[in-house]
Amino acid sequence: MAKNNTIQKLKKIWDIEDLRTRILNTILFLLVYVAGTQILLPGIDSKILSRATTEGGWTDLINQFSGGAFSKASIFALGIMPYITASIVIQLLGMAVPQFQKLQKEGESGRKKMQTYTKFLTIAVTAFQAYGYLNLYVGGKEAIVIDGFLFMFTSICIMVSATLFLMWLGEKITEKGIGNGVSILITVGILARLPMAIMEEFKEAFTGDAAGGRTFFLIVEYLAWFFVVLFTIAIVKAVRKVPLEYPKQMVAGGAINKVQGGGRRYLPLKIAMAGVMPIIFAQAIMFLPTGLAGSDFLGDGFKGVMAEIGDPNSVWYNITTAVLIVVMTYFYTAMVVNPRQMAEDFKKQGAFIPGIKPGNDTANYIDGIMSKIMFPGALFLALIAILPVFARMANVNTGFSYFFGGTSLLIMVSVVLDTLQQVDGYLLMSHYDGLMKTGKVRGESSLSESSSVGMI
Q: Three-state SS for 238?
Protein backbone atom coordinates (compact mmCIF):
# COMPACT_ATOMS: atom_id res chain seq x y z
CA MET A 1 0.00 0.00 0.00
CA ALA A 2 2.78 2.40 0.96
CA LYS A 3 4.69 1.46 -2.21
CA ASN A 4 1.67 2.24 -4.41
CA ASN A 5 1.17 5.55 -2.62
CA THR A 6 4.80 6.50 -3.24
CA ILE A 7 4.47 5.62 -6.93
CA GLN A 8 1.35 7.77 -7.17
CA LYS A 9 3.20 10.70 -5.59
CA LEU A 10 6.06 10.33 -8.09
CA LYS A 11 3.56 10.23 -10.97
CA LYS A 12 1.96 13.44 -9.71
CA ILE A 13 5.38 15.11 -9.55
CA TRP A 14 6.11 14.00 -13.12
CA ASP A 15 2.73 15.25 -14.35
CA ILE A 16 3.50 18.85 -13.34
CA GLU A 17 5.39 20.19 -16.36
CA ASP A 18 7.20 23.03 -14.59
CA LEU A 19 8.29 20.79 -11.72
CA ARG A 20 9.39 18.04 -14.11
CA THR A 21 11.48 20.54 -16.09
CA ARG A 22 13.09 21.90 -12.95
CA ILE A 23 13.99 18.42 -11.69
CA LEU A 24 15.52 17.47 -15.05
CA ASN A 25 17.46 20.77 -15.15
CA THR A 26 18.79 20.11 -11.65
CA ILE A 27 19.92 16.60 -12.61
CA LEU A 28 21.62 17.94 -15.76
CA PHE A 29 23.48 20.67 -13.85
CA LEU A 30 24.60 18.18 -11.21
CA LEU A 31 25.90 15.80 -13.88
CA VAL A 32 28.04 18.66 -15.19
CA TYR A 33 29.39 19.21 -11.68
CA VAL A 34 30.14 15.50 -11.13
CA ALA A 35 31.89 15.33 -14.53
CA GLY A 36 34.02 18.33 -13.58
CA THR A 37 35.27 16.60 -10.43
CA GLN A 38 36.86 13.95 -12.67
CA ILE A 39 38.85 16.46 -14.81
CA LEU A 40 42.37 16.70 -13.39
CA LEU A 41 44.64 19.71 -13.45
CA PRO A 42 47.29 19.50 -16.20
CA GLY A 43 50.85 18.89 -15.09
CA ILE A 44 50.02 16.61 -12.14
CA ASP A 45 50.68 12.87 -11.95
CA SER A 46 47.47 11.41 -10.51
CA LYS A 47 49.12 8.02 -9.79
CA ILE A 48 51.77 9.59 -7.56
CA LEU A 49 49.12 11.70 -5.83
CA SER A 50 46.83 8.74 -5.15
CA ARG A 51 49.68 6.66 -3.72
CA ALA A 52 50.78 9.52 -1.47
CA THR A 53 47.27 10.44 -0.28
CA THR A 54 46.37 9.28 3.20
CA GLU A 55 43.08 9.51 5.04
CA GLY A 56 42.46 11.49 8.21
CA GLY A 57 43.09 14.99 9.46
CA TRP A 58 41.84 18.26 8.04
CA THR A 59 42.55 17.29 4.41
CA ASP A 60 40.05 14.43 4.62
CA LEU A 61 37.49 16.84 6.10
CA ILE A 62 37.90 19.22 3.15
CA ASN A 63 37.75 16.28 0.75
CA GLN A 64 34.26 15.49 2.10
CA PHE A 65 32.86 18.76 0.72
CA SER A 66 34.41 18.39 -2.74
CA GLY A 67 33.20 14.89 -3.58
CA GLY A 68 36.76 13.57 -3.57
CA ALA A 69 37.97 16.24 -6.03
CA PHE A 70 40.42 17.62 -3.45
CA SER A 71 42.46 14.42 -3.19
CA LYS A 72 42.43 13.94 -6.99
CA ALA A 73 43.73 17.45 -7.79
CA SER A 74 40.67 18.09 -9.94
CA ILE A 75 39.82 21.49 -11.41
CA PHE A 76 37.00 21.53 -8.82
CA ALA A 77 39.42 20.63 -5.99
CA LEU A 78 38.42 23.68 -3.91
CA GLY A 79 34.76 23.28 -4.82
CA ILE A 80 32.34 26.02 -3.83
CA MET A 81 33.91 26.51 -0.37
CA PRO A 82 35.86 29.72 -1.27
CA TYR A 83 32.52 31.30 -2.18
CA ILE A 84 31.06 30.14 1.14
CA THR A 85 34.03 31.67 2.98
CA ALA A 86 33.64 34.97 1.12
CA SER A 87 29.88 35.00 1.77
CA ILE A 88 30.45 34.49 5.52
CA VAL A 89 32.98 37.35 5.62
CA ILE A 90 30.63 39.72 3.76
CA GLN A 91 27.74 38.66 6.00
CA LEU A 92 29.77 39.43 9.12
CA LEU A 93 30.80 42.79 7.66
CA GLY A 94 27.11 43.49 7.06
CA MET A 95 26.52 43.01 10.78
CA ALA A 96 29.49 45.04 12.05
CA VAL A 97 30.48 47.68 9.44
CA PRO A 98 28.11 50.66 8.98
CA GLN A 99 28.78 50.97 5.23
CA PHE A 100 27.75 47.37 4.62
CA GLN A 101 24.75 47.76 6.93
CA LYS A 102 23.64 50.68 4.78
CA LEU A 103 23.93 48.53 1.65
CA GLN A 104 21.72 45.86 3.22
CA LYS A 105 18.98 48.46 3.72
CA GLU A 106 19.06 49.67 0.10
CA GLY A 107 17.01 46.75 -1.18
CA GLU A 108 17.76 45.11 -4.52
CA SER A 109 20.49 47.59 -5.55
CA GLY A 110 22.30 47.09 -2.25
CA ARG A 111 21.99 43.32 -2.57
CA LYS A 112 23.59 43.44 -6.03
CA LYS A 113 26.52 45.51 -4.71
CA MET A 114 27.01 43.05 -1.83
CA GLN A 115 26.97 40.18 -4.34
CA THR A 116 29.59 41.96 -6.45
CA TYR A 117 31.84 42.38 -3.40
CA THR A 118 31.32 38.70 -2.59
CA LYS A 119 32.42 37.67 -6.09
CA PHE A 120 35.61 39.77 -5.96
CA LEU A 121 36.43 38.43 -2.51
CA THR A 122 35.77 34.89 -3.80
CA ILE A 123 38.39 35.40 -6.52
CA ALA A 124 40.94 36.55 -3.93
CA VAL A 125 40.15 33.71 -1.50
CA THR A 126 40.27 31.10 -4.28
CA ALA A 127 43.61 32.37 -5.61
CA PHE A 128 45.11 32.30 -2.09
CA GLN A 129 43.76 28.83 -1.31
CA ALA A 130 44.76 27.50 -4.76
CA TYR A 131 48.36 28.61 -4.23
CA GLY A 132 48.47 26.95 -0.81
CA TYR A 133 46.84 23.80 -2.16
CA LEU A 134 49.26 23.44 -5.09
CA ASN A 135 52.34 24.38 -3.10
CA LEU A 136 51.70 22.51 0.15
CA TYR A 137 49.34 19.64 -0.62
CA VAL A 138 50.12 18.64 -4.24
CA GLY A 139 53.72 19.87 -4.23
CA GLY A 140 54.34 18.29 -0.83
CA LYS A 141 53.46 14.89 -2.29
CA GLU A 142 55.84 15.48 -5.24
CA ALA A 143 53.02 14.93 -7.74
CA ILE A 144 53.80 17.98 -9.91
CA VAL A 145 55.60 16.87 -13.08
CA ILE A 146 55.82 20.32 -14.69
CA ASP A 147 57.84 22.66 -12.52
CA GLY A 148 57.93 26.42 -12.83
CA PHE A 149 55.99 29.67 -12.67
CA LEU A 150 53.87 28.89 -15.74
CA PHE A 151 52.35 25.79 -14.11
CA MET A 152 51.48 27.65 -10.90
CA PHE A 153 49.97 30.61 -12.76
CA THR A 154 47.85 28.54 -15.17
CA SER A 155 46.68 26.15 -12.43
CA ILE A 156 45.59 29.02 -10.17
CA CYS A 157 43.72 30.61 -13.10
CA ILE A 158 41.99 27.30 -13.85
CA MET A 159 40.94 26.79 -10.22
CA VAL A 160 39.66 30.37 -9.88
CA SER A 161 37.68 29.95 -13.11
CA ALA A 162 36.32 26.62 -11.88
CA THR A 163 35.05 28.15 -8.62
CA LEU A 164 33.42 31.03 -10.53
CA PHE A 165 31.82 28.47 -12.83
CA LEU A 166 30.43 26.62 -9.79
CA MET A 167 29.00 29.92 -8.52
CA TRP A 168 27.25 30.37 -11.86
CA LEU A 169 26.09 26.75 -11.80
CA GLY A 170 24.64 27.24 -8.33
CA GLU A 171 22.74 30.34 -9.49
CA LYS A 172 21.32 28.41 -12.45
CA ILE A 173 20.15 25.57 -10.19
CA THR A 174 18.39 28.10 -7.96
CA GLU A 175 16.84 29.85 -10.96
CA LYS A 176 15.91 26.92 -13.19
CA GLY A 177 16.05 23.94 -10.83
CA ILE A 178 14.91 22.84 -7.40
CA GLY A 179 16.35 24.12 -4.13
CA ASN A 180 19.24 26.41 -3.26
CA GLY A 181 21.91 25.79 -5.87
CA VAL A 182 25.00 26.38 -3.72
CA SER A 183 23.65 24.19 -0.90
CA ILE A 184 22.79 21.41 -3.35
CA LEU A 185 26.30 21.49 -4.85
CA ILE A 186 27.79 21.08 -1.37
CA THR A 187 25.35 18.29 -0.57
CA VAL A 188 26.12 16.42 -3.78
CA GLY A 189 29.83 16.72 -3.03
CA ILE A 190 29.21 15.17 0.38
CA LEU A 191 26.87 12.45 -0.90
CA ALA A 192 29.34 11.51 -3.65
CA ARG A 193 31.57 10.03 -0.94
CA LEU A 194 28.78 8.09 0.78
CA PRO A 195 28.54 5.05 -1.59
CA MET A 196 32.31 4.52 -1.45
CA ALA A 197 32.29 4.78 2.36
CA ILE A 198 29.44 2.23 2.61
CA MET A 199 31.22 -0.15 0.23
CA GLU A 200 34.40 0.05 2.32
CA GLU A 201 32.39 -0.83 5.42
CA PHE A 202 30.84 -3.84 3.66
CA LYS A 203 34.25 -4.94 2.39
CA GLU A 204 35.71 -4.89 5.88
CA ALA A 205 32.65 -6.68 7.30
CA PHE A 206 32.70 -9.64 4.90
CA THR A 207 36.44 -10.17 4.49
CA GLY A 208 39.17 -11.10 6.91
CA ASP A 209 39.40 -13.41 9.91
CA ALA A 210 36.88 -11.48 12.04
CA ALA A 211 34.20 -11.34 9.33
CA GLY A 212 31.47 -12.86 11.53
CA GLY A 213 31.90 -10.42 14.39
CA ARG A 214 32.33 -7.54 11.99
CA THR A 215 29.02 -8.41 10.29
CA PHE A 216 27.13 -8.05 13.59
CA PHE A 217 28.97 -4.79 14.24
CA LEU A 218 27.93 -3.56 10.78
CA ILE A 219 24.24 -4.08 11.63
CA VAL A 220 24.63 -2.19 14.92
CA GLU A 221 26.58 0.52 13.13
CA TYR A 222 23.89 1.19 10.52
CA LEU A 223 21.14 1.13 13.15
CA ALA A 224 23.09 3.71 15.16
CA TRP A 225 23.57 5.86 12.05
CA PHE A 226 19.85 5.62 11.25
CA PHE A 227 18.87 6.89 14.71
CA VAL A 228 21.50 9.65 14.58
CA VAL A 229 19.99 10.89 11.30
CA LEU A 230 16.46 10.74 12.76
CA PHE A 231 17.61 12.65 15.85
CA THR A 232 19.28 15.29 13.67
CA ILE A 233 16.13 15.74 11.57
CA ALA A 234 14.04 16.13 14.73
CA ILE A 235 16.33 18.78 16.20
CA VAL A 236 16.79 20.70 12.93
CA LYS A 237 13.01 20.97 12.46
CA ALA A 238 12.18 21.50 16.15
CA VAL A 239 10.67 24.91 16.91
CA ARG A 240 9.30 26.71 19.93
CA LYS A 241 6.01 28.23 18.75
CA VAL A 242 5.21 31.64 20.25
CA PRO A 243 1.50 32.53 19.79
CA LEU A 244 0.71 35.82 18.02
CA GLU A 245 -2.71 37.49 17.85
CA TYR A 246 -3.45 39.58 14.75
CA PRO A 247 -6.24 42.18 14.80
CA LYS A 248 -9.21 42.01 12.45
CA GLN A 249 -9.52 44.71 9.79
CA MET A 250 -12.60 46.27 8.22
CA VAL A 251 -12.39 46.20 4.41
CA ALA A 252 -14.79 48.17 2.22
CA GLY A 253 -16.57 45.93 -0.26
CA GLY A 254 -19.08 48.09 -2.12
CA ALA A 255 -22.27 48.51 -0.12
CA ILE A 256 -21.15 45.92 2.44
CA ASN A 257 -18.11 46.21 4.64
CA LYS A 258 -16.25 42.96 5.30
CA VAL A 259 -14.11 41.92 8.22
CA GLN A 260 -10.91 40.19 7.17
CA GLY A 261 -7.72 38.98 8.79
CA GLY A 262 -7.29 38.42 12.47
CA GLY A 263 -6.84 35.14 14.23
CA ARG A 264 -3.85 33.45 15.83
CA ARG A 265 -0.55 32.63 14.18
CA TYR A 266 2.76 31.43 15.54
CA LEU A 267 6.30 32.75 15.59
CA PRO A 268 8.56 29.69 15.11
CA LEU A 269 11.84 29.99 17.01
CA LYS A 270 14.14 27.15 15.98
CA ILE A 271 16.12 25.29 18.60
CA ALA A 272 19.05 25.01 16.17
CA MET A 273 18.59 28.62 15.07
CA ALA A 274 22.23 29.19 14.09
CA GLY A 275 22.26 26.14 11.79
CA VAL A 276 25.68 24.92 10.64
CA MET A 277 27.43 28.29 10.95
CA PRO A 278 28.89 27.75 14.48
CA ILE A 279 30.41 24.42 13.36
CA ILE A 280 31.90 26.04 10.25
CA PHE A 281 33.38 28.90 12.29
CA ALA A 282 34.74 26.54 14.95
CA GLN A 283 36.35 24.24 12.39
CA ALA A 284 37.91 27.23 10.62
CA ILE A 285 39.44 28.38 13.93
CA MET A 286 40.68 24.85 14.70
CA PHE A 287 42.82 24.92 11.56
CA LEU A 288 45.05 27.51 13.32
CA PRO A 289 46.69 25.10 15.83
CA THR A 290 47.72 22.84 12.94
CA GLY A 291 49.42 25.79 11.22
CA LEU A 292 51.09 26.93 14.45
CA ALA A 293 52.37 23.40 15.08
CA GLY A 294 54.31 23.52 11.81
CA SER A 295 55.71 27.00 12.42
CA ASP A 296 59.47 27.49 12.83
CA PHE A 297 59.04 30.54 15.08
CA LEU A 298 57.70 28.68 18.14
CA GLY A 299 59.37 26.51 20.76
CA ASP A 300 59.14 22.73 20.67
CA GLY A 301 56.99 22.61 23.81
CA PHE A 302 54.40 25.06 22.47
CA LYS A 303 54.38 23.34 19.07
CA GLY A 304 53.69 20.03 20.83
CA VAL A 305 50.69 21.57 22.60
CA MET A 306 49.38 23.03 19.32
CA ALA A 307 49.85 19.66 17.59
CA GLU A 308 47.80 17.96 20.34
CA ILE A 309 45.01 20.56 20.10
CA GLY A 310 45.07 20.43 16.29
CA ASP A 311 44.75 16.62 16.10
CA PRO A 312 41.09 15.83 15.20
CA ASN A 313 41.30 12.56 17.16
CA SER A 314 42.61 14.08 20.40
CA VAL A 315 40.53 14.83 23.50
CA TRP A 316 41.64 18.47 23.69
CA TYR A 317 40.70 19.09 20.06
CA ASN A 318 37.13 17.92 20.68
CA ILE A 319 36.78 19.78 24.00
CA THR A 320 38.01 23.01 22.37
CA THR A 321 35.75 22.49 19.37
CA ALA A 322 32.68 21.90 21.57
CA VAL A 323 33.36 25.02 23.64
CA LEU A 324 33.90 27.12 20.50
CA ILE A 325 30.63 25.87 19.00
CA VAL A 326 28.64 26.81 22.11
CA VAL A 327 30.22 30.28 22.19
CA MET A 328 29.75 30.80 18.44
CA THR A 329 26.10 29.70 18.66
CA TYR A 330 25.35 32.50 21.14
CA PHE A 331 27.42 35.02 19.18
CA TYR A 332 25.97 34.21 15.75
CA THR A 333 22.36 34.07 16.98
CA ALA A 334 22.79 37.43 18.73
CA MET A 335 24.15 38.92 15.50
CA VAL A 336 21.44 37.51 13.23
CA VAL A 337 18.26 37.63 15.33
CA ASN A 338 17.16 40.94 16.85
CA PRO A 339 14.24 40.52 19.31
CA ARG A 340 13.72 44.29 19.57
CA GLN A 341 13.37 44.63 15.80
CA MET A 342 10.92 41.73 15.78
CA ALA A 343 8.89 43.33 18.57
CA GLU A 344 8.84 46.63 16.68
CA ASP A 345 7.63 44.92 13.50
CA PHE A 346 4.84 43.15 15.39
CA LYS A 347 3.80 46.46 16.94
CA LYS A 348 3.56 48.10 13.51
CA GLN A 349 1.42 45.21 12.26
CA GLY A 350 -0.84 45.40 15.33
CA ALA A 351 0.17 41.88 16.38
CA PHE A 352 0.81 40.98 20.00
CA ILE A 353 1.68 38.02 22.19
CA PRO A 354 -1.27 37.18 24.50
CA GLY A 355 -0.60 38.47 28.01
CA ILE A 356 2.51 40.44 26.97
CA LYS A 357 2.57 44.20 26.37
CA PRO A 358 3.83 45.33 22.93
CA GLY A 359 7.25 46.96 22.70
CA ASN A 360 10.00 46.30 25.25
CA ASP A 361 8.04 43.65 27.15
CA THR A 362 7.56 41.66 23.94
CA ALA A 363 11.27 42.00 23.06
CA ASN A 364 12.30 40.83 26.54
CA TYR A 365 9.84 37.91 26.37
CA ILE A 366 11.19 36.73 22.98
CA ASP A 367 14.78 37.21 24.20
CA GLY A 368 14.03 35.11 27.29
CA ILE A 369 12.61 32.25 25.21
CA MET A 370 15.60 32.38 22.86
CA SER A 371 18.01 32.21 25.80
CA LYS A 372 16.26 29.09 27.11
CA ILE A 373 16.20 27.19 23.80
CA MET A 374 19.64 28.37 22.63
CA PHE A 375 21.63 26.39 25.18
CA PRO A 376 20.21 22.94 24.28
CA GLY A 377 20.58 23.90 20.62
CA ALA A 378 24.25 24.77 21.19
CA LEU A 379 24.85 21.50 23.05
CA PHE A 380 23.21 19.60 20.18
CA LEU A 381 25.52 21.26 17.63
CA ALA A 382 28.56 20.49 19.81
CA LEU A 383 27.49 16.84 20.14
CA ILE A 384 26.89 16.50 16.39
CA ALA A 385 30.31 18.04 15.67
CA ILE A 386 32.25 15.51 17.78
CA LEU A 387 30.18 12.39 16.98
CA PRO A 388 32.50 11.36 14.08
CA VAL A 389 35.37 11.05 16.59
CA PHE A 390 33.33 8.67 18.78
CA ALA A 391 32.45 6.71 15.64
CA ARG A 392 36.14 6.31 14.78
CA MET A 393 36.85 5.26 18.37
CA ALA A 394 34.25 2.51 17.84
CA ASN A 395 36.27 1.25 14.83
CA VAL A 396 34.01 2.81 12.19
CA ASN A 397 35.85 3.42 8.93
CA THR A 398 37.27 6.96 8.72
CA GLY A 399 35.38 7.83 5.53
CA PHE A 400 32.02 6.65 6.87
CA SER A 401 32.56 8.19 10.33
CA TYR A 402 32.15 11.70 8.89
CA PHE A 403 28.52 10.87 8.07
CA PHE A 404 27.79 10.24 11.75
CA GLY A 405 27.74 13.96 12.46
CA GLY A 406 29.53 17.22 11.90
CA THR A 407 28.84 19.72 9.17
CA SER A 408 28.30 16.96 6.61
CA LEU A 409 25.26 15.47 8.34
CA LEU A 410 23.70 18.85 9.21
CA ILE A 411 24.06 20.16 5.66
CA MET A 412 22.61 16.98 4.15
CA VAL A 413 19.59 16.97 6.47
CA SER A 414 18.91 20.69 6.04
CA VAL A 415 19.20 20.70 2.25
CA VAL A 416 17.11 17.56 1.77
CA LEU A 417 14.33 18.97 3.97
CA ASP A 418 14.43 22.31 2.14
CA THR A 419 14.21 20.57 -1.24
CA LEU A 420 11.27 18.46 -0.04
CA GLN A 421 9.50 21.62 1.06
CA GLN A 422 9.94 23.17 -2.38
CA VAL A 423 8.60 20.07 -4.13
CA ASP A 424 5.75 20.04 -1.62
CA GLY A 425 4.93 23.63 -2.55
CA TYR A 426 4.65 22.79 -6.25
CA LEU A 427 2.34 19.87 -5.46
CA LEU A 428 0.08 22.02 -3.29
CA MET A 429 -0.09 24.79 -5.90
CA SER A 430 -1.19 22.17 -8.42
CA HIS A 431 -3.96 20.98 -6.07
CA TYR A 432 -2.19 17.76 -5.13
CA ASP A 433 -1.48 16.46 -1.65
CA GLY A 434 2.03 17.14 -0.46
CA LEU A 435 4.75 14.58 0.09
CA MET A 436 3.69 14.39 3.72
CA LYS A 437 0.18 13.41 4.83
CA THR A 438 -0.45 16.87 6.25
CA GLY A 439 0.56 18.60 3.04
CA LYS A 440 3.66 20.16 4.57
CA VAL A 441 6.96 18.96 5.92
CA ARG A 442 6.72 18.45 9.63
CA GLY A 443 8.04 21.37 11.65
CA GLU A 444 6.62 24.12 9.44
CA SER A 445 4.15 26.61 10.80
CA SER A 446 1.81 29.15 9.33
CA LEU A 447 4.07 32.07 10.07
CA SER A 448 7.27 30.35 8.97
CA GLU A 449 6.01 30.21 5.40
CA SER A 450 6.01 34.00 5.18
CA SER A 451 8.72 35.14 7.59
CA SER A 452 11.03 32.40 8.79
CA VAL A 453 13.25 33.21 11.72
CA GLY A 454 16.74 31.75 11.86
CA MET A 455 18.88 29.82 9.41
CA ILE A 456 19.00 26.18 8.51
A: coil
